[in-house]
Write a structure and sequence with these properties.
The chain is built from twelve helices and ten strands. The protein is of the alpha/beta class. Helix 7 packs parallel to helix 8. The structure holds zinc ion.
């Protein structure tokens, strides 16, 4: 069922595990993630970036597809449909479209303006029963054309935004989007511990989950991370499986060109990636 992310993340924080946010790009992606969550009895968050929303013909199309799929596939685990790194304008579009959760990425505004806009969205989301994620400190890497370095957020700024009443908080702790460079310094657990101490029960969000070593993921969960975003890893798995299918010439055998056959190995690869992550994050059986 489609729900806000509030309850699942409160439970995750209390139970010392994390819920995965898996970004979707099309019907196959969505189906693969929903079926895996149901099979493993895990709560799940479907992430939609503005670029992906545009690609899928708008947020309304996405929300309608997800709702119909939840019905049609009898998905009983809690599912949140979440706008990833939303601009102020996109947040309102997703609220109207029927999303159950949004992220307002005000990290590029001065802190005063980030606070003012976040406050306004807190009130709207509260009224409509949506969860709201805020971001403090820019998270590095490239996301929809915006490139940043792996910065660390200021714990006092984190507390200021958390106190506005957001549901969950994304804070830069040296993490970046996309593949990590060979000379990456790793996550700053010092920063994470300081933020955790300041924000108390607020679930923290780790962006850029692709390629962070497993022991670092586990330590981050121990220190208060309750939501981990995975995007690139599913893309890499899908591409590799599709490449293998074509390179083996399987699209040239019989009806191997049928899109339902051609895309099947990629779908299975996404399922395997999602399963691996849910096991690592500890969300299996928590729905
Ligand atoms: Zn992100």
């Amino acid at each position: 069922m489609l729900v806000s992310a509030k309850e699942m993340l409160t439970k995750a924080k209390e139970g010392h595990y994390a819920v995965g946010q898996f970004n979707i790009n099309n019907l196959e992606w969505t189906k693969a993630i929903l079926l895996t969550a149901e099979e493993l009895k895990s709560p799940v968050i479907l992430g939609v970036s503005e670029g992906a929303g545009k690609y899928m013909c708008g947020f309304k199309t996405v929300a309608d597809m997800v709702k119909s799929m939840i019905n049609e596939l009898n998905i009983t685990v809690p599912v949140a449909l979440h706008l990833d790194h939303g601009t102020y304008e996109a947040c309102y579009k997703c609220i109207d479209a029927g999303f159950s959760s949004i992220m307002f990425d005000g990290s590029h505004y001065a802190i005063e303006e980030n606070v003012a806009k976040t406050k306004e969205l807190v009130a709207v989301c509260e009224e409509k029963g949506l969860s709201l994620e805020a971001e403090v400190g820019s998270i590095g890497g490239e996301e929809d054309g915006v490139v940043g370095m792996g910065e660390c957020a200021d714990p006092d700024e984190c507390k200021m935004i958390a106190d506005l009443g957001v549901t969950m908080l994304a804070a830069g702790i040296g993490n970046i989007h996309g593949k990590y460079p060979a000379n990456w310094a790793g996550l700053s657990f010092e920063t994470l511990a300081a933020i955790s101490e300041k924000v108390g029960k607020m679930p923290l969000v780790l962006h850029g989950g692709t390629g962070i070593p497993e022991d670092m993921i586990k330590k981050a969960i121990d220190l208060g991370v309750s939501k981990i975003n995975v995007n690139t890893e599913c893309q890499l798995a899908f591409a590799a499986a599709t490449r293998a299918y074509v390179e083996a010439g399987k699209d040239l055998q019989g009806k191997g060109f049928d899109p339902r056959k051609l895309l099947a190995p990629g779908v299975e690869a996404i399922k395997a990636t999602v399963k691996e992550k849910m096991e690592l994050f500890g969300s299996v059986g928590k729905a």
